[in-house]
Write a structure and sequence with these properties.
about 160 residues; alpha+beta; 2 domains; eight-stranded antiparallel sheet; 4 helices
Length: about 160
């Protein structure tokens, strides 16, 4: 998180980044269990990863799938066997953007990377991520994902 924070301070509004970090520290200090602390870290790392600074130190990959889906995958790490993952997808339906037929959704988290594999999960939805090589990841989606209409996170993501 330190690398993401330092990069966000350099490339984004430092005052806003510092204020967000202060609020995050207060939240962590008020946590009563490990689950709360883990969620606070995941939320803050995802926020920092989505900043201009965070994106500058992350590896970015894109997937253009059938049916109007475009996915974006940002990976930071590994650091001590963990990676920060920010996975989003946008679906443009047959009505097009002008008609408001656009949906977006995603998942993120800090997860272990073992043997070029990691997994994000949320409410019965699992997304397995496999690093095929330095320029390519494959995402496979299983379970009931309840993503926004038309959105899928699965596909082959290639380095931009």
């Amino acid at each position: 998180m330190g690398t993401l924070y330092a990069s966000a301070l350099k490339h984004d509004d430092a005052g806003k980044i510092r204020e967000r970090q202060r609020r995050w520290i207060t939240k962590v200090q008020s946590c009563g269990d490990v689950a709360c602390i883990r969620q606070a870290y995941d939320d803050q790392i995802s926020f920092l990863q989505a900043t201009q600074g965070g994106r500058s130190v992350s590896a970015d990959f894109t997937s253009k799938g059938p049916g109007g889906n475009q996915g974006d995958l940002a990976i930071f790490g590994p650091v001590d066997g963990l990676v920060a993952v920010f996975l989003t997808s946008t679906y443009v339906g047959p009505g097009g953007g002008a008609a408001g037929d656009v949906n977006a959704d995603g998942m993120d988290g800090v997860v272990p990377l073992e043997k070029e594999h990691t997994q994000l999960s949320r409410d019965g939805c699992k997304v397995d991520l496999d690093r095929l090589n330095a320029k390519t990841w494959r995402a496979s989606q299983t379970g009931i994902c309840n993503l926004a209409d038309g959105v899928t996170l699965q596909g082959t993501y290639r380095k931009q």
